[in-house]
Amino acid sequence: MTERAGLSVSAASYAGPQPPPAYNLAAAALAAGHRHRDKPAFRLFSADEPHAPAQTATYGELASRAGHVMAGLKELGLPPRSVIAIRQHTGIAYALSFLAITGSGHIALAMSPMLTAREIETISKIAGVAAIIRDETLEAHDRDGIADLRIEALEHDGARSRPAGFADTSANDPAYLVFTSGTGAAPKGVLHAHRAVFGRRPMYRDWYDASEADVFLHTGAMNWTYSLGTGLLDPLVLGATATFLDATPAPQSWSDILHATQATILATVPGIYRQMLRSDFSLSRSAPLRHGLTAGEALRPALHDDWISTTGRPLCEAFGMSEISTYLSTAPDMTWHPGSPGRPQRGRAIAILNAEDDADPVPLPLGETGILAVHRSDPGMMLGYIGSETAENAAWRGDWFVTGDLAIMDNDGFVHPQGRADDVMNAMGYRVSPAEVEAQLLACPGVIEAAVTSIEPAEGVSIIKAFVVADSRTKEAGPEALLGRVSGNLARYKRPKELVFVESLPRTANGKIQRSRLRLL
User: Fold this and answer.
1) Beta strands in 152-218 (DSSP E)
2) How far is CA 138 from CA 62, 115, 116, 149, 361, in A?
3) Is the domain of 98 the same as that of 247?
4) Would the pLDDT of 183 be above 60?
5) Predicted confidence (pLDDT) at residue 2 exceeds the cutoff of 50
6) Among candidates 232, 239, 222, 180, which has minimal Cα distance to 387?
7) What's the burial of 116, exposed, middle or buried (CB within 10 Å: 0-12/13-18/19+)?
8) CB of 44 within 8 A of CB of 91?
9) How far apart are CA 63 and CA 293, in angstroms?
10) 34: domain range?
11) Model's pTM, two decimal places?
């Protein structure tokens, strides 16, 4: 597994397939239409009435309509590589907008429809947005110099002429932009090249185990990078069928949704799997679902085991970030290791570097905790940050992109995340990973969710405080009883000194715990 025996590194540089010099993201995503013109490429189901798709498009229809939208964009006369934002709800319109923008050689900015006017203003200034394609149901962003567009008008105007062809882009040309949901005062944009979609190929075998026969169902909004890649672009490149929902379903609806969509691969976050299993969910052995994919949050052993015992299907975890997408994963035919999302996907160059040494990017020995890093040669790697020169400078150690995640690589090559470097708590002068403490809490019967952070009850005094979602029996026993359960498995300085029961944990729109808000509970 390792490039050098005994060191935490999978390869010295990327060893997977490389994209051709001339490459267009949208052309690659729609290429399957040449052999599957009448096959469903995209479907949207209503969470309330999932019995038949509310929107659908074949590969032929998607390619034709994207060509018309590209022709409509061409008539606008925008400068090359203009940044065009997408403010739309999940649906065919979002897919068409993204494909047409990138297909035309412009840069697609995936925006959430939930952004406030202030957030739109901030992001638009940082990105230099030239136009916004907006749903009519969303309020217009009134700012000089930004064109307010509708997908229907672009498609209508473009249909009056021949569909536009794909722009002559190179693999390294910029294609799309996403903004991270960090806790900093200002967001930072992650700029990706057209090659980013080609760089996702290691996932197809080492996480999805997918083919053109599959039906993907993703439960997230299309502006999220997990949804955009795993839910839309990868199924299209494979020649499979991309399926989405228009909203988050009621817990009791999941059985009907999986039956109606005939999904063979379900992609979502652990919280949705947990929600499914806590309802009256059932899945017959004859249902087409082959396995589930999970990312965005650590998969806990109890949830993993409950899913398999209930459904008889594998649950496959992956780990990644907006800058590179997923690069660690467990495939359906692999044995899942609790506490690890998996091994580096084949071809990826992954290393664990010394967290304290900014100058020397030498991999640590196996089993030592350090900063998880990905080699710059990976075609899935971002072009860079915009809007934060500080973040750009801090992101690299030589040719290694440092993710900010602490991790350990074991002797079998499995990587075990230990929390964010900037989440590491300081308790009684010791550095403590939240993941280690949370794992002990989650192992206790009756604990549904748990998160910890360090607080300062007095100046110069730092302790660990735990926030727990639990069943009624555990709550009745009280915080001290639960603290007593974990004390035997944690060193004294790692034990929470305070514990409170809460109804829910604060999370981002993508389902990640917002540790900065825990202190406000």
Assistant:
1) 174-179, 189-193, 215-218
2) 24, 10, 11, 12, 47
3) yes
4) no
5) no
6) 180
7) exposed
8) yes
9) 28
10) 25-346
11) 0.84
